[in-house]
């Protein structure tokens, strides 16, 4: 008999949700994390009364009522609706592309006029390709213009995408934006999901609620004393990097990362919105997050005299940086498959979450995965 049923490596949303369901089934868990805090990438730091999303802005969204009801049973979520604004050379445009954007771009006021303008621009893009002797878009630049036309591509897509990927749109594959949502209604809600919001009081409340009554240890790296940690439990739930788990025996998986430049400003309201994208190439950051707008609405914004902003710079990943986004190219996909084959042969280890599965997961699908996984285990 070992001390714990489960040792859970990583206190992010995967590890914390797993621990919660395991405890509900009467299992004894220990959750460890190498960071000095719990919560993984949803962790928030409270600065001047504002919950600052330290590892990037997180908006919970789902159409799955079971997932929504579950997270709301842990902590109630607020009514935040993601409606980013794009700033191109000092002019503002609503996102995602909708009637507000088309009005701001072309002055059109009816869906019919907007559609006519889009069709005209699409036809011009197809004609340009024809003149070049091609019928199918060869890259993202051509694909975007065939889908939405030159004006929106040049002002709202080109610069942002090139900064985000660190490559020219003409050198990026077309499939990245095979679908661009275009709405002929006045609706700035970025997500199509039925439910969205932010936990009232911040994400730490969600993590603390999930981990209520469960033993945790921060500042504890599994790899610093692997034999000891392994001796503690019958089973391990591993949510760290899968290549690290196997000593990088086949080589290192690659990631993209983001650098955050955070500032506290002596103004109650810096940009009037949580998310402003900077879509021109010459502004080096991709977007500016003003954290208070995730949880303070209307006049509430002025109850807090200061504000905290984060400028996001999309960056190449090197060892020692936070691994944020898996790179789903052919080489990395093949490398991951080799590690996955090893993982599939394990009997007492569950690999889960964005690092262990080398997969970009939004939060809700991750919670859904744990819910179904745990139902399958018991
Ligand atoms: P993580 O949160 O990364 O947790 C893994 C934990 O394991 C970490 O705390 C780490 O310290 C710990 N760990 C790793 N190795 C070890 C070790 N050797 N020993 C001990 N501990 C270890 N999703 C949305 O739904 N909406 C959004 O708006 C959204 N925005 C995002 C923005 C950014 C910039 C990023 C990167 C992601 C975003 N996501 C968003 C996705 C969301 O962050 C993930 O779904 C979720 O955080 C993944 O949880 P996880 O537990 O798998 O991983
Ligand atoms: N995008 C864009 N302009 C914007 C926002 C997004 O061109 O103002 C494109 C860009 O190619 C980006 C993709 O849409 O890679 C997805 O962006 P989003 O912010 O929705 O996704 P995330 O970066 O969170 O994966």
The CATH homology group name of the largest domain: NAD(P)-binding Rossmann-like Domain
Quaternary structure of the protein: single chain
Number of strand segments: 16
Shape: globular
Poorly predicted sequence stretches spanning 5 or more consecutive residues: none
Broad CATH class of the largest domain: Alpha Beta
- Report Rg: 23 Å
Run of helices and strands: EHEEEEHEEHHHHEHEHEHEEEEEHEH
Calculate the mean pLDDT score and round it: 95
At CATH level 3, the topology of the largest domain is Rossmann fold
CATH-level-2 architecture of the largest domain: 3-Layer(aba) Sandwich
- Number of spatially distinct domains: 3
Residues in helices, as a percent range: 25-40%
* Major sheet attributes: 7 strands, mixed
Q: From the helix content, strand content and strand pairing, which structural class follows?
A: alpha/beta
Q: N-to-C terminal Cα separation, in Å?
A: 19 Å
| Ions, cofactors and other bound molecules | flavin-adenine dinucleotide, uridine-5'-diphosphate
Secondary structure tally, helices: 11
Q: Which range does the strand content fall in?
A: 15-25%
Can you list the strand order of the major beta sheet? Answer: 7-6-12-13-14-11-15
Enzyme class: isomerase
InterPro entries: UDP-GALP_mutase, UDP-GalPyranose_mutase_C
Domain UDP-galactopyranose mutase C-terminal: 156-360
Protein name: UDP-galactopyranose mutase
